Amino acid sequence: MTQQSETAAKSPPMTAPLEGVPLPDMERVPDYERGFWEGTRNGELRIQRCADCGRFRHLPTPMCPECSSLQYSWTQVSGRGFVYSFVIVRHPVHPAIREREQTPYNICMIELEEQEGLRVCSNILQVAPEDIGIGMPVQVTFMPVADDPEVTLPVFLPAPQQ
Amino acid sequence: MPPNIIPADTNGIRDKAAIVGIGETEFSWDSGRSELQLASEAIKAACDDAGIAPQDIDGLIRYDMESNHETLLTQSLGIKNLRHWESVSYGGGAGNATVGHAAAAIAAGYANYVVCFRAANLRSGVRLGRARGPERIAGGADSFAVPWGSMAPAHRFGMFVRRYMHEYGATSRHFGWVAVTLREHASRNPRALRREPITIDDHQNSRMVVDPLHVLDFCQENDGAAAVVMTTPERARELRHSDTLTLVEAAAQGSGPRNDGIVYRPDLAAAESEHTARDLWARARLSASDMDAMMFYDHFTPFCLINLETYGFVPRGEAKDFVDGGANIRFDGMLPVNTHGGNHSEAYIHGLTHVQEAVRLIRGDSTAQPPQKAINRVLSCSSVAQLSGAVIIRRG
Q1: Which residues pair with A86 in a beta bridge?
Q2: What is the rounded CA–CA span in Å between residue B85 and residue B97?
Q3: pLDDT, tens digit, for every residue of A135-153?
Q4: Minimal Cα distance from B145: which residue of A?
Q5: Which pLDDT score, from 0 to 100, does residue A7 have?
Q6: Is-contact A101 A14, C-beta < 8 A?
Q7: Residues B101-129: b if buried by 16+ CB within 10 A, e if exposed
């Protein structure tokens, strides 16, 4: 792949979230997940944080998996992190991806700087797939979704090396 | 870690159950018939192989993804009274786990003849590799993945594979040698759906589907059914394969932490099968070096390397060297793997065909029977699915 990327033309970067893919239904998401989406609508990346031991957690859960506390807050994080792992999807498996020719696109696991192992799934915009690499520093930004005004997605942009 | 209140070497099923029959339908892209029909045919074939009648069955272990419920099967098979039934969760991890559960039921005396089965039109029906589900998501792991396009198994497992490659230096070529080897095994197997041999270049030049996974890294999606019949060793000695006793020596399952959504493990390059392997070897009082072959759950080829490492055949990070060139993992190599061709090239029946192949190897009638050594013990295992399962099958 590395050899190929040096000689062949690069694929175009993503410039916006995918269109036409299934989104969470804000009427039905459970109470212990809602704070995440309320945060993104307000332009903040809020992560569930245990009110007793202070550990962040994602995916959200009703109980702290570390200390079993049922008390938590939604705490804004810096939105800075790095690419922990990623894939480049070149073959579409969803009709909206296929019909709107949205491949290639990237899916990244972003590790947030607040806590080791604290990761969210997202996309990186403005970077050609061939240039995405593990360890790349990134910064969150927020994009409305064309299909639903209720949903704002956190996506990531390249950030200067710290 | 929570205190382990069970002595690590407790193994209440050791040699208490035997696999006495295996059977399957033909494998196809379009079976043209119902999943109940497929299940009935595969179970009947397994009963024929065992030398019992379907009406003798009094225990059923199904996958929870299976559309065929016990009531349908008792009706179709003419079972007079089902004494024991269970469903094992998920797909990939369930194959070996069903056998472990059946062995436990037999050891406990809950049933005489227990059948484990999987029947599905996974190609002509609902395909697991395709995005599916409702247009809106009611929360859960999918709602934190699908909006960014993570919607198929390859997206999640590809994330794992990328991290593994990064940490241990494995390359797509190493995965290619697994593909070449599995296809070679399938080329000898008349049941297999994909029998045309491939080269390492074919693999490397095959379409990139979800980088880092080429299309020749993927298992198939197909229709078909498989079943195994189990009973006590005492009854096994009265049945058709009385000359070769095929015993379940140990079994284990493991979830590891944080498995929901698959990609949130603390160390994504580590598999939950580390936990499964630890329990399995402690219960069996054996190690990888005691195994004559490894049947691994090959949803994607890189998981050959992961299984080799987590079950201890090679140290972590060294599987890439072990599989390089394919010679070690060929049927005539140091450690034959998936001599039937696996999910990759024989058929994808959610891992139950791997148990069947382990039985064939013990009986000595695999189409890729290792010529160089007797096969006395086979590990059938899975690593990263969502939850993993493993079973050791030995010659009695």
Answers
A1: A108
A2: 14
A3: 999 999 999 898 888 899 9
A4: A121
A5: 57
A6: no
A7: bbbbbbbeebbbbbbbbbbbbbbbeeebb
Query: What pLDDT is stored for residue B181 in this prediction?
Result: 98
Segments making up each domain of chain A, as ranges: 26-76, 78-162
A160/chain B closest Cα distance in angstroms: 22
Q: Calculate the alpha carbon distances from B46 to A144, B39, B281 in Å.
A: 55, 11, 29
Q: How many Cα atoms are found within 13 Å in the side-chain-facing hemisphere of A20?
A: 12
Class of domain B18-126+222-236: alpha beta
Q: Which amino acid is at A68?
A: S
Q: In terms of DSSP H, where are the helices of B188-328?
A: 200-205, 233-236, 273-284, 303-310, 319-323
Instruction: Please name the residue of chain A whose CA is at the shortest distance from the CA of residue B143.
Output: A24
Q: Can you tell me the distance from the alpha carbon of B2 to that of B11, in angstroms, rounded to the nearest whole number?
A: 20
Q: How are beta strands A23-24 and B136-137 bridged, if at all?
A: parallel
CA distances (Å), origin A47, targets A57, A61, A75, A158, B262: 7, 11, 5, 21, 19
Best of B1, B126, B127, B136 to mutate (most A CBs within 10 Å, chain A): B136
Alpha-carbon dihedral A143, A147, A148, A149, rounded to 10 degrees: 50
A103-137, pLDDT tens digit by residue?
999 999 999 999 999 999 999 999 999 999 999 99
Among residues A157, A65, A35, A104, the alpha carbon closest in space to that of B209 is found at A104
Non-local CB neighbours of B177 within 8 Å, separated by 6+ positions: B200, B323, B324, B325, B326, B329
The ipTM is: 0.95
> CB–CB of B149 and A86 under 8 A?
no
The catalytic site residues of B sit at 297, 348
Q: Which of B276, B286, B285 is nearest to B309 (CA)?
A: B276
Q: Strand, helix or coil at A123?
A: coil
The pLDDT value given to residue B127: 85
Taking an 8 Å cut-off on Cβ atoms, the answer to whether B136 and A21 are in contact is no
Q: Is B144 in Cβ contact with A121 (below 8 Å)?
A: yes
Asked if A134 and B155 come within 8 Å (Cβ–Cβ), the reply is no
